[in-house]
Amino acid sequence: MVLIRIVTAVTLCPALDNDGDGYTVAQGDCNDNNSSIHPGAVDICGDGIDQDCTGSDCPIQTDAFLDVKNDFHITQRISIDGTYVGDVKPGQTVTFSISAGSHTLKACDNITGCLTKSMYIEAGGRGVWTIFDS
Ligand SMILES: [Ca+2]
Ligand SMILES: [Ca+2]
Ligand SMILES: [Ca+2]
After folding, report:
1. Residue 60 CA: which ligand is closest?
2. How many domains does the chain have?
3. pLDDT tens readout for residues 55-83
4. Which helix (H) or strand (E) element contains residue 78?
5. How far from 77 is each of 8, 74, 107, 121, 128, CA to CA, in Å?
6. How far is the CA of 73 from the CAs of 70, 92, 108, in angstroms?
7. What integer pLDDT is reported at residue 2 of this predicted model?
């Protein structure tokens, strides 16, 4: 007579909601140790944390506005931290994504040259950079 013993590995049921936010890992909770992170949570844009479990943190949107007092009425080439984000004409805005923290905006044209401006963007905030040509 041959005795066959079958051993089945039993894993603990993952259907537990560790942080009590109403979502299990199986239900899409991407951090089951933090109750402020789950599907449907408010994603604070730009903080580097994907609170709503969509797969990425939402970017902060911000605008650069070129003041109409710009003497030369020249379209400015806008760059943030050395990366080009778009052109803006006097009285118009260009919208772009940005991370939280300190940044340097540079506005350049071929006649008046460049001017730079520093700005701090808070996570979840929205910035407006007004550019004067002086
Ligand atoms: Ca949970
Ligand atoms: Ca976030
Ligand atoms: Ca997200």
Report:
1. 2
2. 2
3. 999 989 889 888 887 666 788 999 999 99
4. strand 76-80
5. 66, 10, 5, 21, 16
6. 6, 11, 12
7. 67
Neighbours of ion ligand 3 (CB under 5 A): 43, 50, 52, 54
Residues 91 and 105 in one domain: yes
Within the chain, which residues score under 50 in pLDDT?
Answer: none
Centroid of ligand 1 to alpha carbon of 4 (angstroms): 41
Q: What's the CA-to-centroid distance between 126 and ligand 1, angstroms?
A: 30
| Closest to 31 (Cα-Cα) out of 104, 83, 43 | 43
**Is residue 70 included in any domain, yes or no?**
yes
Whole-model pTM?
Answer: 0.67
Q: How many CB atoms lie within 10 A of CB 122?
A: 13
Q: Which single residue is written with the structure tokens 């052109």?
A: 87
Q: Are residues 35 and 65 in the same domain?
A: no
Q: Which residues pair with 70 in a beta bridge?
A: none
